[in-house]
Amino acid sequence: MSKVQVKNWNDFCPQQLFLYGTYREDGTPNFGLFCWFSYLYAQQIKDEGPGMGVMVSIGGEKLTKDLIRKNGIFSANLVTEELLPLADYYGVVGGREHKDKMRYSPTVEKGVVLNVPTIAESPVSMELQVFQEIHLGNNNDVFLCKIMGETMREDLTDKDVPFIDRFKSVKQVLAGGEQRYVSTDGRDLGAWGEPMKSL
Ligand SMILES: Cc1cc2nc3c(=O)[nH]c(=O)nc-3n(C[C@H](O)[C@H](O)[C@H](O)COP(=O)(O)O)c2cc1C
To answer: pTM higher than 0.85, yes or no?
Structure first.
């Protein structure tokens, strides 16, 4: 099969979805949906503390970015099929514009290491501290962060169960391309803005 030149960016290179959790000034949580997220190893950059880190790309000005800048810390909570309607809503409804955005809420817990809101229903939550912000211009910014704490659903740590079975039990949601949500076993889970209609 020959290949053709395209400009469709990351279609067919799916990205995992996360809900970033921050506390607003009044102490209430805010969540936003994000997929431009990847891992980095930061030991060489700052040699104290844990070396595992992440890079997150935030385009445009939004409440999550305001609060990450102000607090320097936030959480990243893995999105599952169960969380998708809520996650989709958090991705479509802006926190700056909609003061009542959090009228739909998951079960919010506090991080184990950092003072960040985490989501009980999410099987994996990372607690992140920003160590560098890179301005790319036009309000596009990348935040480099250290993973200061992480919690995981207890059964996922049971190494007596084969990894692939634990992996399948998570039911992660991917941003697959063409603005559609896709399951890890290849099912279409709807277009952006559709799953939230079931809330
Ligand atoms: C599937 C999906 C993925 C998204 N990924 C990102 C992302 O990686 N970076 C970004 O800046 N915005 C992303 N967004 C948009 C934010 O979720 C949106 O701006 C939201 O309003 C952020 O919440 P906030 O306004 O409370 O900060 C995504 C939206 C959707 C629907």
So the answer is: yes
